[in-house]
Amino acid sequence: MGALELLFSASLWAAAIRIASPLIFATLGELISERAGVLNLGIEGIMTVGAFAGWFTVYQGGDLWLGVLVAALAGSAFGLLHAILVVPLGLSQHVTGIGITLFAASLTYYTYRLAFPEVTSPPKIEPFQPWAVPILSDIPFFGEALFRQTPLTYLAFIAAGLVGWFLYRTPAGLAVRTAGENPAAVEAQGIDVTKVRILAVVAGSALMGIGGAFLTLSAFNSFYFEMVNGRGWIAIALVVFGSWRPGKALLGALLFAAFDAYQLRLQQLAGAFVPYQIFLMLPYALSILALIIMSRRASYPRALMIPYRKGER
Amino acid sequence: MTDTVLSLDRISKRFGALLANDAISFDLKQGEIVALLGENGAGKTTLMNILFGHYVADDGSISVFGESLPPGQPRAAIQAGIGMVHQHFTLADNLTVLDNIMLGTEKPWRLSSRKSEARQRLTKLAQDFGLAIEPDKTVADLSVGERQRVEILKVLYREARILILDEPTAVLTPQESQSLFATLKKLTAQGLSIIFISHKLNEVLNVSERIFVLRAGKLVAERPTKGTTRKELAELMVGRPIAEPKIEPQPKGDVHVAIRAVTTADGLDHADLVLHGGEILGLAGVSGNGQTALANLLSGLSHPKSGSLHIFGEDAARWTPDLVTRKRIARIPEDRHAEGLVADMSVTENVIAEIYREPRFNKRGFLDWRAAEGFAEEIIKGFDVKCPSPATRVRLLSGGNMQKLILGRTLSLAPHFILACQPARGLDIGAVSYVHERLIQARKSGASVLLISDDLDEILALADRVAVIYRGRISEPLPSQQVTIQELGLMMAGHGFSEGDAHAA
User: pTM (2 decimals)?
Assistant: First the structure.
């Protein structure tokens, strides 16, 4: 198969959608947080926590969906920590976020070592299996690409729709968006800015946790060190790429994942002649390029990264 | 028969050592407009923030329509019928008018907003009060006057019965202010009550029925508007008699600054201006019409794309800020915090910031701190800057003293041309008259002064000639005795600027 023909294989697109799923969750989570005015650089660590918490729950005999729930709760716990530090206490969002990432990831690895002191090869669980959507999965090409995925992937797409609806159609979503634009306007209408921002960060972190859990419960079947592997940072770039809009962010995640899936296959195709690291680099280089093109016109939330203090002007 | 709708009872609030509000009591009756008059820092805004629940008072109580108001809860204040139109608009620029107005009016966990109903209600409200607005426009696309309309509608939408307006005219043209006053009268006719906060005497006399004067956190006087005068109010505000600035006519000197058909990237559009020694030229205009561009041009921060700029007869088109300083051009920047001073550095460091390379501050390649301190002390003494020592960090100075420091730094160099951008903005009356006095002195000694200001009273009081800047173009200056505030207001709104040649190039 040549490099071009690859683009028309359903398996490439099925892989792209699989790869996109954790990015979609994480990007949506970051997006909610940033729309409320809070940058959450804890995302990489929060995803690691989610990956472990979800997997460990299932390993202990829990149901897969219970694993997802626990991952969300664990993610939101660290989100709450971040939120308390940067919202009411007004600490620097960059520094705190990086701290959360380091803390959350290290704590996770430590917990893993405590639980499995002797193990050299990671224990396995029985992960989510692909579920073919009746009828739709029989459509040629699209059926294989779109409708033979695991339930968590379907959930990622549903989540994108729900987040969009929440932000643009509900009063609470309006409060979140305004908190990221001009918190004084929220306060002036009698709504507690602190509460809105904390809840947004916590909810966003829950999604990040689920994004992490996708890796251990759906993409793979065990927990490895460094398995999040920069996906959190990619999500942060995808939020910018998507101009802080859920629909565009979803497209961005798919685009990035498509590059990634494509390079994996190119490696097999041309790996003999070209060092494989070139291909590994490809999606990142392309996403930097896309970011440059897209984010020049992006209008970011005006109050992003600006702590709000009551009554201060 | 009028009823009391709001009463404040001995409200006190302390910030550290500062007593911002000292046992303030007053009341508001239905259908009346009271003015709260006071200088910056007199405690007006603090008091209103307490009333609206942004702050909690240390002492005292508030009752609205006979019921006591729980402290520290904006939501409770809103529900009690209090609406606040903030000095700095509390609007989200990237959202629509409707979004801004609906925020906080529905239960947060509704699955869907009732936008069409809200739009109808808003349209009706806008019609009833004569406040035309397009609900689906983005706030960023609105003019300042329109934004204020949105702020007022926001408050009316929540069925406020008591309106607080904090310095509402600070950003408006005179015409916009007039239409605001008309709106306020309409609102009181419908039974609403209004608290109008301002430090502008003319407005307060124009719009209110009763006036409360605050000074240094205390309520020092209550006057019926009909029984008081501008002069009395000014003295109550400041606490001592005030002299109006006196300007004696004098002949014009040589041309100091000649700007001809200058266009810049940041907003000037074929601007022309000629400034002579010994005159103060006032430049009026709604902010954002190119004032900053003009200041940048004259400070050497930007350069003409076309046209010519001459200062003291030399071609100054390529002058750098450093050269501008060395040519003894004094700059009083618009934003003293951002451009004028470095808040966390000492008085000494700030006064030599522009001129530290001069030989008198250098000893064999090192800074001569003793000389620098001497210079700082001279300024502190000569310009009456109140600060403990030259080592004081500038952040700790009051706005008035910061401005005196800037004046001192630049006027002590005996400049020939002074670029004064909003020199009195945010200062109290005492400091304002000091700044004005210094500018008049400079004029007397033959310097030219370009006074860029939003405050027409200030311009008409000081300037020999007045020009208006509108969308980057500058009108032909007129002698200040021959223009009225109304005429200037019309020009500020663009009357008399021909559209045609504006885009000729």
Answer: 0.81
